[in-house]
Amino acid sequence: MSSTESPSVSAASVFPRAASVRVGEGERLRSVGLPGVTLSIRSRRPASQDLPPALYVHGLGGSSQNWSVLMAELDDVVHSEALDLPGFGDSPPPDDGNYSITGHARAVIRYLDAVGRGPVHLFGNSLGGAVTTRVAAARPDLVRTLTLVSPALPELRIQRAAAPTALLGVPGVAALFTRLTKEWTAEQRVGGVMALCYGDPSRVTSEAFQDAVEELERRLQLPYFWDAMARSARGIVNAYTLGGQHGLWRQAERVLAPTLLVYGGRDQLVGFRMAARAARAFRDSRLLSLPDAGHVAMMEYPEVVATAFRELLADTGESGTDTEGDVTDVTVPGAGS
Known about the structure:
By secondary structure, the chain is an alpha/beta fold. About 35% of the residues lie in helices and about 20% in strands.
């Protein structure tokens, strides 16, 4: 049963998205209204209707479009949906203005509960990695496997390039940054983001660059754009300072789902040195190291990430092989170079 047919969301508003939002070949967009939040959902038609569901969660400043290429790579093994977190992509802000890691995780859980798609193969990048870690720890019944690409888990010594993102969460800094950069073009902004997020920005095609420029131009017109960015950045910083059972590393230890960890050697935002700690924290983990990748390996090396995910499926209940407790470190030297 599709989510638009599900009785659990029949009372909520489900309607097509605006034509101004880019929809890739084979994709569709819809909006799902839930109590306190409305989420834009990007989906693909699966090769078979009996394939297990997958849900993808993007990072800070990103959108469901960040997963389009990887989703297409996995058409034959999962039924893919990617959501725009509240205040990002084509999703409006949450009614309560809560952009914390917990608030975003609550939105993901609310969606999965409403449409009844769980348990899903859950994917998260950066901020989305922290969010999905919290989801997997709090609601193991909703998660089959967990794939984390450069997850934003607490670091004692953050990357120097990540400092501006942390500062964005300081009250007033977003407004100051907006004034200081008001003359910047969308092309300049996108170029800066890609230089920060990609291990090799030259891998970005001219078409992909232009698509990103058009999407940014659209989102800069939204009155809540910078507020969503600043509050979500503050949410990451606050999550880094939490201890006890609510700490993200403690929650990582509670994750029961088989976990694929993907780290890039050229990541300027999440330290590559954190890969080993993550592999120890998640009890059933596999580590994919990509020396040439940056912060968004699923966009830079989608074929390699897709292959690693297929291997994760083969290692789990799909093949009947019990690998609980194992840590497999797969390093791909010069992937795609």
